[in-house]
Write a structure and sequence with these properties.
With 270 residues, this protein is of the alpha/beta class. It contains ten helices and 15 strands. It has two domains: 220 residues, Glutaconate Coenzyme A-transferase (3-Layer(aba) Sandwich), CATH 3.40.1080.10; 35 residues, no CATH class.
């Protein structure tokens, strides 16, 4: 079985990377740290609600753009690294409504050219994102056509999994855990970290808890407390003090130059 560093090291500059979890829950933080340390660049991060994952990647200089419904450390505080980078023009904030973001993932997961919705009609998203309207051939009603959003790779943290790649969620499932399922099925490749690697027999014994199947997963890596300091229900809660500490720390000093300035310096050194 490959190490987390080996698996994440396959992610190339310019990739679109989907990150599972939402807010301060189920974030694949071990994978995010490995990605930040790999010094990959120009990533577009896709996440339903970003938090410490986005903060660490922005601080590492890995991010070109963030596509999400919001980025926040609430209730711990503001996402200052993300906010500052956007204000300085170092990264692009592609803010989506929740339904438009999920609609794009649904279209990708279903393998269809677009998914219709009335959710964002009348909003500035049509102009800002270049979205187009279509007409329902049955009723004549106008709808918005959301194009597929297909990340190159999805990083998901799971409750438990087996070596064959079958991934399970606890019961009752965590808040918005279906977003992880949707993200994984929309992505070209799926990397799953798990707090508990169990036998295939254990998974089969509680088959109803299975979220993803082995043929849908490219790599499984066991990582103890791999979502920490965000929560991984029911095993551990978020640690607000640790989240604040990691968000405040400049873990990767090269990021202090900012992505644009650092790329110029790297070009001079070649």
């Amino acid at each position: 079985m490959a190490t987390l560093e080996q698996v994440v090291g396959r992610i190339r500059d310019g990739a679109v990377v989907g990150i599972g979890g939402t807010g301060l829950s189920r974030k694949p933080m071990a994978a995010v740290r490995a990605l930040a340390a790999s010094r990959v660049r120009d990533l577009e991060v896709v996440t339903f609600v970003g938090s410490l994952d986005v903060e660490l990647l922005v601080r590492s200089g890995a991010v070109r753009a963030v596509r999400s419904s919001s980025v926040t450390l609430a209730p711990v505080g503001a996402a200052s690294a993300f906010t500052g980078a956007v204000e300085r023009g170092e990264i692009c904030d592609i803010e989506e409504s929740e339904w438009v973001l999920l609609g794009g993932l649904r279209a990708a997961a279903a393998g269809i050219p677009f998914i219709p919705t009335r959710a964002a009609l009348g909003s500035e998203l049509l102009r800002a994102r270049g979205l187009r309207q279509v007409t329902d051939p049955y009723t004549g009603v106008s709808a918005l056509a959301i194009p597929p959003l297909r990340p190159n790779v999805a990083l998901i943290h799971a409750w438990r999994a087996d070596p064959a790649g079958n991934v399970q969620a606890p019961w009752p499932p965590g808040h918005l855990s279906d977003v992880d399922l949707l993200l994984a099925r929309a992505a070209e490749h799926v990397i799953v970290t798990t707090d508990s690697l169990v036998s295939e027999a254990e998974v089969k014994a509680s088959a109803a808890r299975t979220l993803l199947f082995g043929f849908e997963v490219d790599a499984i890596v066991e990582t103890e407390r791999g979502a920490f300091p965000t929560a991984a229900p029911p095993d551990y809660a978020a640690d607000p003090s640790q989240i604040a500490s990691e968000a405040a720390a400049t873990l990767y000093p090269a990021a202090a130059e900012g992505p644009s300035r650092r790329r110029k310096n790297e070009a001079r050194s070649r």
